[in-house]
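Forum > Structural Biology > Help requests

Title: Can anyone predict the 3D structure of Fructose-1,6-bisphosphatase, cytosolic?

Hi all, first post here. I have the sequence for Fructose-1,6-bisphosphatase, cytosolic but no way to get a structure on my laptop. I'd be grateful if someone could post the structure tokens.
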Amino acid sequence: MDHAADAMRTDLMTITRFVLNEQSKFPEARGDLTILLNHIVLGCKFVCSSVSKAGLAKLIGLAGDTNVQGEEQKKLDVLSNDVFIKALSSSGRTNVLVSEELEEAVFVDEKLRGRYCVVFDPLDGSSNIDCGVSIGTIFGIYMLKEGSAGTLNDVLQPGKNMIAAGYCMYGSSCTLVLSTGTGVNGFTLDPSLGEFILTHPDIQIPKKGKIYSVNEGNAKNWDEPTRKFVENCKFPQDGSSPKSLRYIGSMVADVHRTLLYGGIFMYPADKKSPNGKLRVLYEVFPMSFLVEQAGGMAFTGKGRALDIVPTKIHQRSPIFLGSYDDVEQIKALYEATA
Ligand SMILES: O=P(O)(O)OC[C@H]1O[C@](O)(COP(=O)(O)O)[C@@H](O)[C@@H]1O
Ligand SMILES: [Mg+2]
Ligand SMILES: [Mg+2]
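Reply #1:
Sure, ran it for you. Structure tokens for Fructose-1,6-bisphosphatase, cytosolic below:
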């Protein structure tokens, strides 16, 4: 590919151009969200370059501390967290920040405060860092509540109140998937240009998929609806072909595949983890927002994931998300036992 010629192509849809186009659809927009998204993009580029040279730069292995979840922090968890805290606060557009790696919420310095709140998982899939398997960053954006100067209540909002969400996957290529509430679009980082280019416009998740994704190692502790659903994926009663199992163990990578290929990603509750493992604010909500925007469904076993009203910033919830018809099936099994 002739990069120079390519760089001169005026129709090259970079993420910056794309977001500016989106902004132009709202005459009252002040450009704050555009500036905030650009700082998130910068953070993703920085983490992407750190991840790609993790082995070389001694960024492999443990940082030596434990986070609020009781997990041993990886060096890249800590580095990514620092990068995003700096990128988000220096944007001058944020107020309350919640990170998986920090016990308490961060209230941005008054001089730099803005009207957005960001919840994020700086490095998702930490168990896959040291073996170089795809990992990512997940983020969700809320607007401050009317008249609020910035309190925890501004982030303890149902996911359906988010105004934007996305993730960046650090894999064979670096892909940023974003929704500002009007559909889902994917951008691939062109390392030679240093630009995210629109490569997956208007992502629509297939209505039904051929893949199920779950850690079957927890099967003995599952409840009946989950057990029945997975059994049916393997031994379908309706004469259809069995689904294939795909599980990477990085939510970003498993959800990215699910968005593009269809199927269902699940992290159910079980006897050991009655609320599942994944965190509501910065894993379940952003991914559910994207999946719904792409025409899929996100269900908790009790209801729509985006209807959860969180009470704690590191709260967990079971999650079943993906192709509409597949999630509908497990929803029916839960409703039958409710
Ligand atoms: O190893 P398990 O129990 O299957 O859990 C895997 C899940 O845990 C996670 O790694 C949790 O996220 P973090 O790596 O950000 O803590 C998810 O990415 C993934 O879906
Ligand atoms: Mg995570
Ligand atoms: Mg993480």
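The pocket of magnesium ion (ligand 3) is lined by residues 77, 100, 121, 123-124, 126 (CB under 6 Å). The longest strand covers residues 116-124.
Shout if anything looks off.
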